[in-house]
Every structure is written in structure tokens, then in C-alpha cells.
Amino acid sequence: MVATSDSALLDPSHLTRIKDLSLLARVVVDGAIFGVHRSVRQGRGAEFFQYRPYEAGEDLKSIDWKVYAKRDELVSKTYQEDTNFSVCLILDGSASMGYKGEHAGCSKFKYAQMLAACFAYLAFRQGDKVGVVGGSEQSPVFLPVSSGRGHFHRLLAAMGGMQVGGTDLSATAWEKIQASIPKRCLVVYLSDFLENEDLLPARLGFARSSSYECLCVQVLDAEESTLPQAEALRFVEMEGVAEISTSPKLISEEVQNKVADHKQKVSRLCRENSVDFESVLSTDDLGYVLHQFIGLRGRKR
Amino acid sequence: MIEFGQPLALWTALALGLPILAHMAYRQITNKKRFPTLRFLRVSSIPRTGRRRPSDWVLLLVRCALFSLIALLLADPYFKAASIISPNTQKSCLIVLDRSPSMSGWGGWEEAKSKIVEELQVPSTQFGLLTFGSGEILEHSMGTPVDQLLTLVQSLRPGFDAGSGQSLFGRITDLFAARDGEKEILLISDFQESNWQGVYSDLAAKGIAVRIMPVGHDAQSPHSRLGNRAVVEAKVVPVGADKLRIWAVVRNWDTEPVETQVSLHAGAELKMVQTVRLPSVGTAQVQFVMPVGDYAQATVKLEEEDNLPIDNNRTIWLTPPPAKKFGFWLPPDPQEMDAQEMTYLGTALESAGDGGWSRWEVDVTLADKLRLSPESSNLSLLAILGCSDWMNEGAQIGAVQRFLDEGGTVLLTPGESPVRMNQVLRDSSLLNYTFVRFARTPFRMAPFRIDTLPEHGRLNEVFSGDSSRDLYLSQIRKFFVYKELEAGLIVPLRDREGHPLVLCKEYPSGGRLVLFSFRLLPDWTDLPVRNSFLPLLVELGGFGHSLEKDTSRVRLEVGEVLGEGDDLFVAREPGLFKRGSNWVEVVLPIAESMPEVFTVSEISEHIRGYNQTTSADVDKASFMAKNRDTSLWVWIAGAIFLFLLLENILAKPAHKNSANDPLLHA
To answer: Which one of A68, A181, B90, B484 has the lowest number of neighbouring Cβ atoms within 10 Å?
Structure first.
């Protein structure tokens, strides 16, 4: 398990004891990445942000001539840009997300739920609008993006009330999701991406537009590639009725390769659609994962 | 000390390998595991982990113990008494001698005796004797002194019984002691009876050897009765008023036609002789005519001796059987129609006979005596014609009632006034019914017909086919309509509109009261002139039942019995015997004249049985069976049950929540 250097309390197995998603999100975000995250954009705006050395080619309007007069060097004056950014969380609640391996502290869905809460808290803290959609085809949840403390708590309550079960969202549901995503929105899609990966280009095609940023977070359980430790097992599909009796020991290596190939395939599809992709295990430290995502966003800028 | 009844069954203990193999070769049965997706999985072989290690030693031990106990159970263990009795090494031979009638033919009896005498000289052998075919099985146990047996054999004679071979085998086993060593039966017979054809025994399975010794007929001419002729049937019938015809059937078993003399003996004198030519393996008839009344019995004889003399004569009874008596009661001043009815009914009854012998005889005296005297009457049937209120005179009603209570049959025909007859019968409680009207059909109009007989009635059994057709064609022109019949009253005949034509009341004594609703006269009905009338009268009067039990002339085979208690008659030998007022003819069993189907060697196989267990094995089994004290079967069966229960408990799949240990035993 990957852990942050400063605290082991962000281990999912410990965090699952916190029932209040709001508190959980504060613990994770404040405890792990406070001061690291910069969501504000530098650019044109009313509020001064900082000075920085002028670089050739920049607009001459950004040069602070008073500083030049006093210090005889060209510095550019930057302002905090009014971002007006939204965060849309898509949380997969299909039956396969309910899997919890022997060594995992929580199910994949619980992990994704906690991660989504952290994203929501980050957005709420910096005044961004946030919304959540997801669940399964049988019990979909749809809460449009909005801001405010009240909305934040409603969002957490909606996420907390989601139950795993059933199948993946249908094409109709996805059309509704696509229609509800506002401009200038960060879409975070949390799923195990085990089925229907070929539909990703159609579902996330909007991310090719510069108005959107999209991040796919694949949440897997370690046992999905290593397989449970047993001489033989009768595997029953969680989203169906199919069964396979097999010896995990005999096929474990083969399965690991197939899962890795699958990850690569999903990653490639995401890249082709300008979507960031990250795969995490349900045993990974949440703080570390958040660091990764924020670093990813920082690198993109 | 524990021993086994079936020690070879211990080999089944090899089955112990089965649970061990099962443990070593079992496959794991997997637990169900819900998994997000199966797309990366594939079916693989399930490793036989049992080959590496038996997974459950306790269960393995229980299963091994279970198989051991089953093997033990099959081996039939028992505690044997400590004392051991050594079996007798002396040979035991039971001589089984056929004394059936046919043994007297073809020199079979003398031959059998000489062979027995010869057999009894064999040293180191104890003998027993069993005979059959003379009415009873004669037994002399194993170890009877040879001198005693020799004397006995010389005094024996063939009997007349059919001699069923099958009846022997129940006794043979008991005559041998359990300790007897080599056991053997020596069966001496001519094997000509059909009774041998159906025998079966399993003597070989009981360790008893069978030695067949055919004598007489079978030794000389198997499957035939060469040189034998017999009187196979004889009957006597009246010819006119004063003569009798004696009719006999003679059979020849030779393959060549022969001429022989058949004689008739009566009163210890030779009366007539006839020469008859008998075809090869066929029969011929002989007839003698002699006056009635000279002799009570006669014997038909074959004059020439042959190989089996006992079937060469037949004694027959010459006097007729006693006839049943019947009588009439008529009105005090009989009309012409009464006399006509009496004549007609009397003629009809007297014509009923058996082989020419008259079965019914009118006796006016007995009928009148019944009117006047309260004593029992020998009458069987009383016909009261033209019944009316004249029946109230004197003690006639009481006499009728008494006659019925004694089992007699009373037949009533209506008189001039059906109303008065109805009143008389109702007042006297003889019959309770109501007269309704007089029905008649005009001349040239369709007559009344008899309706279909009740399906389950006695008459329906008697009248079928042409006889029923004849009955249904009967015409009835006039009859009285009755109704409101008392309970228990039988209506054997009805017209097609359901009106009773005959009423019948049965009494516990067997007596019957039969009332016709019409007179038995030609202008009333044509029923009396029909063939079906006499059988109808016999059935209505209940005589049909008694005919079957008629003991006036009885023919029995030797060995059969008649009657019971003090009246018991046992047919011991052929001939004619007096029994009370009747005669009983006893003839040789039919079996003595039947052809054989199986050969002696086949009969021998049937007697030995098909189980060829060796004598030594059977001796040992029998010896052990006699000496065993306590069978352990029940105890071991109980232990098996307990172990089976334990095995079921141990082998029951455990409910495990953890996926770490999904293994269950097969």
C-alpha cells in the first residue's frame, strides 16, 4: 500500500470507519494536501496575485512600470483569474464495484465514494460548483452541479445513500449526463472500467473540447488481478449469472497479464480522447492518490 | 469363539481400498465466490490435492471401519459353542420305495424287492426306508437294523394310491441326522405316474445325493405301457323296462392290434364273454345286455393276463339310484283343468332322468300322508295346484309350513279365485303380497313375454345361449298381477313390463315356496311344452343345487375321501362299496393311466435340483448351523448403522464464510 509520509490515518481501512463523508473529506484534504492544491488560474482579473520576471513575447500591458522605475528590471504583474469552474463527479455504482477483496479495507465502491467526497470537498472549499451523477441502471442518482454549503451537504448525502447493485448505466443515462455537464467543467469519472470500455470514446467524447477536463479514475481491488488464494473456486459473475470453476493458482499469472493489458487499453482510449487516466487500488492511501491527481492537474497547466 | 458362516465373503474386505482411493483421488469441490468479472478468467483443471495428502484422517478411518464391518456382516459371523462334535463318517442311505399300483405290473415289485435286498448287503452303510403310494407314507428312520428292514420289505405289497413323489421330499431331509456323513437316497420306482412329472426338489443343495433305480415298466419299456390292456370305463344304462345295457371301454397300449376276450361276471358267475379286437394304442367298446333286478352288481373283466393285472376288471352297480318323490294336492272337487295340470306336471317331472334312470317318482300316498300326519315326509316336492281357500280346511296350512321348515319344496299354482288364494297365503304368513288384477292378451294379439333374466341371478347362469332363447320365446296369455311383495321375496321371472311371474320364498331349512302367477296349462302358457321348462322347474325348486351334491352314485379315485366325521369314507382300493344307502365306486387313479412327458433322467434332474453344491460343503454348512450359538449379525448391523451415521456427520459439508478454506470433502 502506498502511504503518505506524514500520516497513516488516511489508509482506506481506517477512513471507512468515518461515516460522515463531509468530515472524511476534510480529514483527507486538510490533513494531506493543505497548501498544495492551487485551483486558481493566473491571468486577467481584478485581484493582484504576484510578480514574476517578464519573459519576452509577453503582453507589455502586464509589465509593472513602477517596479521597473524603482528596480530597473521588467517584471510582469499577474492577477488572480475568476475561474468559475465546475466539478462533475460520475460515480459507477454497478454491482462489480461492490467487490471487496480479502485484504482490502473497503469495497471498490466505498473507496470511490470517499475519493469523490474528497474531490467534492476540494471544489466546495475553493468555491467551485460541484455535482454528482451515477449509481447503476437500476438506481441512478442525478444531482446537477451547484455551489453553496447546503448543496455540498446534499451532494454528500446523495453519495452516501448510493447503493451498489445492478448493471452499468445505459446509453440513455449517459446522454442525460452529457447534456447536464456545464461548460468549463472538470469531470471525474470513478469506475472499475471492467466492462464496456469500448463505449468510452462515445461517453467521454466531450472531453476533446477545451471547455472540459476529464479524469478517469479506475478503482480496482488487488485480488482482481492476483485472484483470491485458494486451490479452486467457483467464480460467479457479480453482474450476471455466469460461473467458472477454476484453480486461481493455475491462472493467476495469466489473469494479471490480462488485467494489465486491459488497463493499457483503457488508458489508451482515454488518451485518445484527451482524458486523463489513473488506476488505483482500493488499498491505496487516499492522500497519496489525491496528491497524484492534483500533481497531474498542475503538470497539465 | 467367532466363526464365519460364509468365510469367502471376507474377500469383500478388499473393498477397504475404496475409501482410501476415494480419499486419495478426490477432487476439491469449490466454494462459490462472487467476482466482479469473469472476462479475465478461464476454466482450468481442478488439482487432485488428495493425492498428496488424505485430508481427513478421521473420516478415512470411519469409512475403512464401515467397509470392514460390511465385509464382516457378509461373512455371517457367529459365536460357536466350544464343544465340537465330529461328523459321522458312515454313509447313510435312505431307500425310497414306490408302492403305487403300477409297481405290480411288468414284474416291477419283485424286481424292486430283490434290488433292496441286494442293496442292504452293502457294508459300512446305515439304511432307512421310506415308502409311498399305499395311502400313507411309511417311515423307518436311518439306522434301522438291516434284518428288520429285510423282513419289512418282504411283507410289503403295492397299494392303490396315486403315490405322489412330491410328498416325499418334505420327509427325506428330516430322516437324515445333521451328523450323518455321506447322504444318499435310493429311489426305486417305475416312474410311470404323471405325478412324477411335476416333482422338484433341491436335494443336491442339501448335500443329499440321489440314485435312481427304475424297475418294472420303466426298466423294460420306457415311455410306453407295452403288453397292457385295461378296462378304462364301464357304465350301465336301462334298455326299456326290464333290461340293462352294460357298456365298457377297453384300451390297448400295445403298438400292435390284439384280440382279447372280455367277460361279464355277476353273482360270482361268468355270464357272458365277448371277443373284441383292440386297435394298436387305442380303445374299443363292449356292450352286454342283461335283465333288470337279477343282480346288484357286475364285473367286466379281461380274460387274458397282461403285464398289469390290476386294471383288468371294473365292477359296476346295476340297480338304479333312488328316485326323488313328489306328490300333488288338488282342490277337494278337482276340475278338469286341475287334473290336466297335474298330469302335465307329473309327466314333465318323471321324464327328468340321469342316463336313463328315473330321477323323480310320483307318490300319491306320501302326499296324502303329509296332509293327515304331522310326521316328517319323504317327499321332496309338493305341488299344490289350483290353490284357493280350500287350503284352510283341516291342518293343511300347518302341514305345508312344517314341510317347508323341514326343507321341502312347495309349488303353488293359482286357483279360480286369486283373491282368496292371496288371503289364505297372507293370513297363514306363507306369502305376503297383494293381488292387483288379472292380465290377459286377446287371441291373435301378441302374448306376454318373459323379461331378460337378472344379470347376477341363478337362472341367468343356467340359461344362456339357445336355452335362454327358448325361455324368452315362451308365450304367456294370462296371468295374475301381484305387487307390494314382502321383503326377502325373490322374483326369478318377470314379464317385460316388470310384473312378477314367479314368486319364490326361501326358508332357512332349505325349503322353498314357489308361486306361479299363472296356471301350467296350454291355454295359459306354452311354457310347460318348452325344453326350458324342466330346467326352470329344477332351478326354481332349488333341486339344481342338490343335484351337484347328489351322493346316490359316487365315483372316487383311490386315496380320495367322502364325507366327514362318522360318515367319512376313504377310498382305499378299487371296487364297489356300500356307504349307507348308497354305493361308492372306487377306481384306480387317473395318473396310473397317463402317458409320461419327462424321461427318468429329467425327473432325476428335477429331484436333485440345479444347485450343484458339493456334499461336503453342505455337510459343513449344516453341521455348523446346528452348532452355532449366537449370530452376531444384529450387532454388526447395528455397528454399521452407527458408523454410517458418523460418516454422514463427518462428511457433511461445513458452512464456511471465509474464502480461504473453500475445500470440502467429496
So the answer is: B484
This prediction has a pTM of 0.43
ipTM: 0.78
Q: Which residues of A touch B31 (CB under 8 A)?
A: 230, 233-234
Q: Which residues contact B115 (CB under 8 A, 6 or more apart)?
A: B188, B213, B215
CA–CA dist A25, A114 (Å, integer): 7
Residues 6+ apart with CB under 8 A from B259: B275, B276, B277, B278
For residues B95 and B128, the answer to whether their CB atoms sit within 8 Å is yes
Homologous superfamily of the B229-317 domain (CATH):
Immunoglobulins (2.60.40.10)
Nine-digit cell string for A10? 488516511
Contact B33 A221 (CB under 8 A): no
Q: Does the beta carbon of A221 lie under 8 angstroms from any beta carbon of chain B? A: yes
Report the chain B residue with the minimal C-alpha distance to residue A234.
B32
Q: Which of A237, A239, A249, A282 to mutate to test the interface with B (most CBs of B within 10 A)?
A: A237
The CATH number of the structural domain formed by B324-548 is 3.40.50.880
Domains of chain A in start order, with CATH, are 12-38+84-300 (3.40.50.410), 41-81 (no CATH)
Interchain CB distance below 8 Å, B38 and A259: no
Grid cell digits, residue B586: 372306487
